Amino acid sequence: MFDYAQKILDSPDAPQQIERLYQTLQDEKQRRHDFREWITPNIKAEFINGEVVLHSPVKRRHWKTTDFLSSILSIYTRIKKLGTVGTEKVMVALMRNDYEPDLVFYTKEKADKFTDDQLLFPAPDFIVEILSKGTASNDKGIKKADYAAHGVREYWIVDPTRQRVEQYVLLLPTDKQYTPPKTFAIGDDIESRVIEGFTIPVEALFDEQANIEALQNLLAQ
Q1: Over its length of 221 residues, how does the chain's per-residue pLDDT go in tens digits?
Q2: What is the pTM of this model?
Q3: 107: Cβ–Cβ under 8 A, 6 or more apart, which residues?
Q4: Which of 102, 117, 104, 111 is nearest to 81 (CA)?
Q5: Which of 100, 138, 203, 216 is the most exposed place for a label (fewest CB within 10 A)?
Q6: What letter would DSSP give residue 180?
Q7: Are 17 and 11 in contact, with CB atoms under 8 Å apart?
Q8: What single DSSP character describes residue 141?
Q9: How far apart are CA 147 and CA 157, in angstroms?
Q10: Beta 91-93 vs 164-169: how paired, if at all?
Q11: Cα(first)–Cα(last) distance of the chain, in Å?
Q12: d(CA 200, CA 211)
């Protein structure tokens, strides 16, 4: 970032470049405001780098995976009083972009500060995105970078087609980039680095019986 700023300052037309950049960001700020006024609970959309990104309906395997993970995680974290889980329409407002991840988790300390009428939320502690053909590029690109830069301590990218999970973590609160991912497949157990005691078999994300058994095992701890 410093090198880019220095490159502009070293240019003879630095004032003009800075003015254009400022005007572009002001225009983007207005478009973001308009986006927030326009979006409704019935529209799945995000505001990414100045553009509105609309999401098409998802395949059954996508929403089944979301349901399996959200149900097991919601029940577990509520019973253990660890925090709050949100799905699909939680608007995460970061410095520049607004996202609606497939699943988010906030620790109890953060969630207790939210109000029932709140519409925009800060960076979660844990995010899951379920891959689809239309979202894969952003999930693995700008979102991953943005989540890390804003301190999302753990990020799962779940591929329901290949039945795999990529787990990204921040080792330190001051880190701005995730460590190289660990990949988990059928037959593996995946352990959350943020949600205490939450270890499940990968099958629990894709198979109903495995999901039920995993929940029973978690609650028996």
Answers
A1: 557 677 777 788 767 877 787 788 888 899 999 999 999 988 889 999 999 999 888 888 999 999 999 999 999 999 999 999 998 789 999 999 999 999 999 999 999 999 999 999 999 999 999 998 888 999 999 999 999 999 999 999 999 999 999 999 999 988 999 999 999 999 999 999 999 999 999 999 999 999 999 999 999 98
A2: 0.91
A3: 82, 83, 125, 194
A4: 111
A5: 216
A6: P
A7: yes
A8: T
A9: 12
A10: unpaired
A11: 46
A12: 9
**Residue written as token pair 């990104």:** 53
Q: Which residues pair with 169 in a beta bridge?
A: 154
The first and second tokens of residue 220, run together, are 């028996």
What are the tokens at 95?
């410095």
Q: Does domain 58-219 have CATH number 3.90.1570.10?
A: yes
| Residues facing 83 on adjacent strands | 107
Q: Tell me whether residue 213 is exposed, middle or buried, using C-beta atoms within 10 angstroms of its C-beta: 0 to 12, 13 to 18, 19 or more.
A: middle
